[in-house]
Amino acid sequence: MNQFEKLANFRDIGGYRTTDGSRMKTGVLFRSGALSKLTENDIKKFEQLNIKLICDLRTEGEYQSKPAKIQANDTLHIVNVPLQQYETQDGDRRKILGFLFGKQGEEQFDRFIRDYYRRIIFERTSYVNDILRLLASPENLPAVIHCSAGKDRTGIISAIIQLLVGVPYEKVEENYLLTNQFYAKRLEKLSRLMGWLSLFRVTPERVKYIMEAKPEYLHHIYSEITREYGSVEDYLHKACQIDTTIVEGLKEQLLE
Questions:
Q1: Nearest CA to 180 among 6, 11, 62?
Q2: pLDDT of 196 above 90
Q3: Domain of 133?
Q4: Residue 121 and residue 225: Cα distance in Å, rounded?
Q5: Calpha distance 18→169 (Å, rounded)
Q6: pLDDT tens-digit profile of 97-112?
Q7: Does 32 have pLDDT greater than 70?
Q8: What's the average model confidence in pLDDT over 179-205?
Q9: What whole-number distance in Å separates Cα of residue 166 and Cα of residue 19?
Q10: Alpha carbon distance 27, 181 (integer Å)
Q11: Sheet holding 11-12, edge to edge
Q12: What is the CATH number for 246?
């Protein structure tokens, strides 16, 4: 699990057996939350990973207001690829308050997050293209992909990559849901705080519902991709206009 002090939700997305008996490499591609609160010890641990690329999926506003504590240099590149035009939990506080306090907050949140995922998959295809092109280049690996919490935007891209190289869906979902383990203590504290601040009008169950990663959100978008395109690879070719050479190059870099 995460050995960093202030780097949340950090993990390797490799190590899984694929459907054809290959294995997704470890130590090559990582996912995490924002890199804006790293301690000196965190920076030392991060440097030991020999990261060549930080792919920041946050909006330009998030990227500018909370920059990474790690500095780009001759061997480390930091690239901002805004996977969405607006934030989820971290940015749209007005909406979140509505979800927390509203009588139909859970239903409204479900609609919001499903639409959010759908927009990324079907409207931000050129950005998906950019991300995979970066990761297919050997000089950019090892790499870290991250957003703010490392849950939604990062979760979607991580899932697409794992599915592309042949990781079984149940293992992709397992990795996606690890976010809940990383944030369990923070969620407990937040639930108590929201209870006190709202004079207990906001229940711990409602906070948990809003903040947790849920398998049905990932499954919904995976179902839409396969229904529309048949497979993740065909989605990348047809919707994201990614060349076969890029796809095969990425597989070569990530499989052993």
A1: 11
A2: no
A3: 11-254
A4: 8
A5: 10
A6: 556 656 666 788 888 8
A7: yes
A8: 73
A9: 6
A10: 21
A11: 11-12, 29-32, 143-146, 53-56, 77-80
A12: 3.90.190.10
Quote the DSSP letter at residue 11.
E
On average, the pLDDT of the chain sits at 89
- pLDDT, tens digit, for every residue of 217-255? 999 999 999 999 999 999 999 999 999 999 999 999 999
In a domain, 68, yes or no: yes
Q: Are 76 and 52 in contact (CB under 8 A)?
A: yes
Other C-beta atoms closer than 10 Å to the C-beta of 5 total: 12
Whole-number Å distance between alpha carbons of 29 and 144: 6
Residues comprising the chain, all counted: 256
Report the candidate in 212, 214, 191 with the shortest Cα–Cα distance to residue 202: 191
Q: Strand pairing of 29-32 and 143-146? A: parallel
Return the structure tokens found at 195. 């209870």
Asked, for residue 4, whether it belongs to a domain, the answer is no
Render the burial of 221-245: b for 16+ CB within 10 Å, e for the rest.
bbebbeeeeeebbebbbebbebeee
Global pTM reads 0.90
Q: How many domains does the chain contain in total?
A: 1
Q: Which helix (H) or strand (E) holds 12?
A: strand 11-12
228 part of a folded domain:
yes
In whole angstroms, what is the distance from residue 43 CA to residue 221 CA?
35
In this structure, is residue 2 part of a structural domain? no
